[in-house]
TrEMBL record:
<feature type="domain" description="GP-PDE">
    <location>
        <begin position="13"/>
        <end position="261"/>
    </location>
</feature>
<dbReference type="InterPro" id="IPR030395">
    <property type="entry name" value="GP_PDE_dom"/>
</dbReference>
<protein>
    <submittedName>
        <fullName>Glycerophosphodiester phosphodiesterase</fullName>
    </submittedName>
</protein>
<dbReference type="InterPro" id="IPR017946">
    <property type="entry name" value="PLC-like_Pdiesterase_TIM-brl"/>
</dbReference>
<feature type="compositionally biased region" description="Basic and acidic residues">
    <location>
        <begin position="1"/>
        <end position="11"/>
    </location>
</feature>
<dbReference type="Pfam" id="PF03009">
    <property type="entry name" value="GDPD"/>
</dbReference>
Length: 263
């Protein structure tokens, strides 16, 4: 464990809503993100994929089966085809609530309308399948919304990936955008330079890895890295992350985590 002085202040830790307020509402829908903003989340996490006609949509899976009433692969469907599907009713079949696919641009409009600073943690899926087009389109849209920073410390946006390739692409095209390297199984190998894979500026381990090896977080912090952990829903996991000096908690339950933090 870390020294107690390394603990994160309860008021300072950032609470990021994973796919919106997604324990309560269907993930990646406008209502799930609106709820997260109402609940006071500091930021929003989303996964982005490219449609067949080159638009970014907020969908986690490769296919639409789990979270919609349709069938097919996101990258093989146009935005018009995806827009004909309902992404809202799968979660609570007894009380259907229709919800269209959420475009990344619509999400940025919600953030712009929030009237306060909202952090965005955007995960690009999938680097091999899209051969870099998802990262370049993401940066183009961020630029259009004035969200490309001049310096990393002023950025409200960060790009996350399990893929070193994706992070290198972002670094080359927009070096001031902070990048989070995600991992869930293997421990990171910090070489002589102690730098993160993919030239990332932030470490993003999954909570199971943190539980199994809390010393790994301490080592990352000693190497000077910021640590953002996903997906932190349980009270004991919130406490563990605070004890370890984690900077941001990515959670499906932002209201519960904020209440636990006394906010
Ligand atoms: O926030 C990172 C986390 O979302 C990565 O896993 O599968 O939920 O996208 P996944
Ligand atoms: Ca994700």
């Amino acid at each position: 464990r870390t020294d107690r002085t390394d603990r994160t202040d309860r008021s300072a830790v950032k609470v990021i809503a994973h796919r919106g307020s997604s324990a309560a509402l269907p993930e990646h829908t406008e209502e799930a993100y609106r709820r997260a903003l109402e609940e006071g989340a500091d930021g929003l996490e989303c996964d982005v994929r490219l449609t067949a006609d080159g638009r970014l949509v907020c969908v986690h899976d490769r296919t639409v089966e789990r979270t919609s009433d349709g069938r097919g692969t996101v990258s093989a469907m146009t935005l018009a085809q995806l827009s004909a599907l309902d992404f809202g009713s799968w979660k609570h079949p007894g009380e259907p609530r229709r919800s269209p696919v959420l475009t990344f641009e619509r999400l940025l409009e919600l953030v712009a309308d929030a009237g306060r600073r909202v952090e965005l943690a955007v995960e690009t899926k999938h680097p091999v399948r899209y051969a870099g087009r998802v990262e370049s389109e993401l940066l183009r849209v961020l630029g259009r919304f004035g969200l490309l920073p001049a310096a990393p410390e002023e950025s409200a946006v960060r790009v996350m990936s399990f893929s070193e390739l994706a992070l290198h692409r972002v670094r080359r095209a927009a070096p001031a955008v902070p990048r989070v390297y995600l991992w869930e199984r293997r421990l990171p190998v910090l070489g002589r330079t102690r730098s993160l894979p993919g030239g990332a500026s932030i470490a993003g381990p999954g909570i199971e890895l943190v539980r199994r090896d809390p010393g790994m977080v301490a080592a990352l912090r000693r190497a000077g890295h910021r640590v953002h952990v996903w997906t932190v829903d349980r009270p004991e996991d919130v406490e563990l992350c605070l004890e370890l000096g984690v900077e941001a908690l990515i959670t499906n339950r932002p209201a519960e985590v904020l209440a636990r933090l006394g906010r």
